[in-house]
Design brief:
This protein is mainly alpha-helical. 50% of the residues lie in helices and 11% in strands. The N and C termini lie far apart (54 Å).
């Protein structure tokens, strides 16, 4: 991105343009997968994968339908570039050779972080034992953020979720 500034409307339009380039075969495959998935028990890994997949599909559809009404916030280009670098590095490590998945995930994550300011993972998804990402009065909380934000290339740095503060212990 050669420009020095971008606003949220320009970023949305750029993401929408990139969304059109994701192969229709890939999108058909992930939509078909949703209809064949049986619901896994709450809390297990498969449940979390299904939760995240549903959330991503919903947000991808939302992005494609979204217009620029109420979007004019300036976006820090340095933060956007760092975020993009981190997500690309993450996807290269965990999903090498899956170009469509990488692009799909990057588009949705950028949309969630810089446009709608919603969590990178689905509210209701288990992240620690039986703890879930949740929303209270319009504020999102993640019980795993305090642990994962310390990782070198963590995306938690950009997620809107707040850290859950431990309850004070009285001696």
């Amino acid at each position: 991105m050669g420009e020095f500034h971008i606003n949220s409307c320009e970023l949305l339009l750029l993401l929408k343009k990139k969304a059109v380039n994701i192969s229709s075969e890939y999108l058909t495959r992930i939509n078909e997968k949703e209809t064949e998935d049986t619901q896994s028990p709450c809390g297990n890994l498969q449940y979390n994968i299904q939760c995240l997949a549903r959330y991503n599909r919903k947000k991808f559809s939302e992005l494609k339908e979204r217009d620029c009404t109420d979007l004019s916030e300036e976006i820090d280009i340095g933060k956007l570039e760092d975020f993009t670098f981190r997500i690309n590095k993450y996807m290269d490590e965990y999903s090498p050779d899956q170009r469509d998945l990488k692009e799909y995930t990057r588009i949705i994550s950028t949309y969630l972080t810089f446009i709608v300011k919603e969590p990178l993972h689905s509210p209701g998804m288990n992240v620690n034992e039986n703890q879930t990402i949740f929303e209270n009065d319009g504020v999102y909380y993640c019980p795993a953020k305090s642990k994962h934000i310390l990782e070198e290339m963590s995306l938690c740095k950009y997620c809107v979720c707040r850290v859950i503060q431990p309850l004070p212990t009285y001696v």
